[in-house]
C-alpha cells in the first residue's frame, strides 16, 4: 500500500469503527485508486496514446475519436481534439474535466502523470488566457468577499455541519421514502436518489473525511467524538461501494475484495458499450 492509500486508510478510520454487514472487511485501497487512474485512460478523446491501457494498441477497445473538433464543419479553425470525456458519455464538460485534471495532477503516483500531461495539453489549445490580467481582479474579488476571514470560516463550518447532519442520519428507507431526501438502505448505504446514488454517498464521504482531519481548517473545532463519527460513517459508505454489503456486490469496475464478490460487467459507458462496427447505431439499448 502506497503513502497516499495508507493515509487514505487512516482518514477512513481503519481499526477504529465498529462496523457491521462486513464493512470492517479489509479493502485494497491502493488497487482501487489504481483503477480510478485507469478510468482516466479510458476517458481519453482525440488521438489515444499507445501507452493507454484502454487503447487498441494495448489490446483494449479505445480508438481515436473526435479528431476534427474545432476544425470540422462549423468549426473555428483550431485543433481542439483531446481531453477527457465526461462520465460515460461522449461529451467533454470542461468544468468537471478541469477539476478532475487538477486533482489527479496532485497525486504522487507516476502512473497518472502521463495521462494528466496528455489531457493538460488540451487546455493549452482550448484556452488562451493572459494570466496577469486575471489574477488581479480575482484577488480583489476574494478580498471584497472576505475570503479567509473568521466570518467566512465560521460560515463554512456551519454549512459543512448542516451537510453532515443531512447525510449522517438514522432513518431507514421505506417504499414511501421521497426521492432527494437521505435515508439508509438495509445494507447501510446513504440513499439519495435512484439515479447514481453511490456517487452522492461517495462524494459526501469525502467531504466528511476532509472535515474530520486533525489540525486547522474546516472542522478544527470539532470534538474527537464527532470526528470519529464522520470518519466511521465515511468508511462505511466507501466499504459499501467496494463490496461490503449484503449482496457482496462491488460497484467499482475491476475490483472484487474476494473471489466470492461480484463487480460490474456492463458499466454505463458509451465508448465501451457500442459495437465496434460503426454502421451499427449506438443508443440507450447498448448501454
Automatic annotation (TrEMBL):
Pfam families: Glyco_hydro_9. Residues 29-89, 114-275 form the Glycoside hydrolase family domain. It is an enzyme of class 3 (hydrolase). InterPro entries: 6-hairpin_glycosidase_sf, 6hp_glycosidase-like_sf, Glyco_hydro_9, Glyco_hydro_9_His_AS. It catalyses: Endohydrolysis of (1->4)-beta-D-glucosidic linkages in cellulose, lichenin and cereal beta-D-glucans. GO terms for molecular function: cellulase activity. SUPFAM superfamilies: Six-hairpin glycosidases. Keywords: Carbohydrate metabolism, Cellulose degradation, Glycosidase, Hydrolase, Polysaccharide degradation, Signal. Its EC number is 3.2.1.4. PANTHER family: ENDO-1,4-BETA-GLUCANASE (PTHR22298). Belongs to the glycosyl hydrolase 9 (cellulase E) family. This is Endoglucanase.
Amino acid at each position: 500500500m502506497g503513502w497516499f492509500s495508507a493515509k487514505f486508510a487512516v482518514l477512513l478510520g481503519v481499526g477504529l469503527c465498529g462496523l457491521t454487514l462486513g464493512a470492517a472487511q479489509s479493502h485494497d485501497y491502493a488497487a482501487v485508486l489504481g483503477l480510478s487512474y485507469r478510468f482516466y485512460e479510458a476517458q481519453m478523446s482525440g488521438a489515444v496514446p499507445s501507452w493507454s491501457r484502454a487503447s487498441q494498441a494495448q489490446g483494449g477497445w479505445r480508438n481515436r475519436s473526435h479528431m476534427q473538433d474545432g476544425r470540422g464543419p462549423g468549426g473555428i479553425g483550431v485543433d481542439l481534439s483531446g481531453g477527457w470525456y465526461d462520465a460515460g458519455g461522449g461529451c467533454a464538460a470542461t468544468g468537471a474535466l478541469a477539476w478532475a485534471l487538477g486533482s489527479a495532477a496532485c497525486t504522487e503516483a507516476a502512473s497518472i502523470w502521463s495521462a494528466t500531461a496528455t489531457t493538460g495539453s488540451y487546455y493549452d489549445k482550448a484556452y488562451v488566457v493572459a494570466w496577469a490580467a486575471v489574477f488581479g481582479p480575482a484577488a480583489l474579488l476574494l478580498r471584497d468577499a472576505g475570503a479567509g476571514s473568521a466570518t467566512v470560516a465560521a460560515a463554512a463550518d456551519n454549512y459543512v455541519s448542516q451537510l453532515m447532519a443531512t447525510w449522517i442520519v438514522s432513518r431507514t428507507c421505506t417504499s414511501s421514502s421521497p426521492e432527494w431526501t437521505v435515508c439508509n438502505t438495509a445494507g447501510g448505504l446513504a440513499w439519495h436518489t435512484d439515479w447514481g446514488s453511490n456517487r452522492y454517498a461517495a462524494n459526501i464521504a469525502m467531504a466528511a473525511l476532509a472535515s474530520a482531519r486533525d489540525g486547522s481548517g474546516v472542522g478544527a473545532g470539532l470534538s474527537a467524538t464527532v470526528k470519529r463519527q464522520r470518519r466511521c460513517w465515511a468508511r462505511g459508505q466507501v466499504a459499501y461501494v467496494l463490496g461490503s454489503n449484503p449482496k457482496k456486490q462491488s460497484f467499482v469496475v475491476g475490483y472484487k475484495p474476494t473471489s466470492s464478490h461480484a463487480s460490474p460487467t456492463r458499466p454505463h459507458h458509451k465508448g465501451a458499450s457500442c459495437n465496434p462496427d460503426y454502421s451499427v447505431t449506438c443508443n440507450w439499448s447498448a448501454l
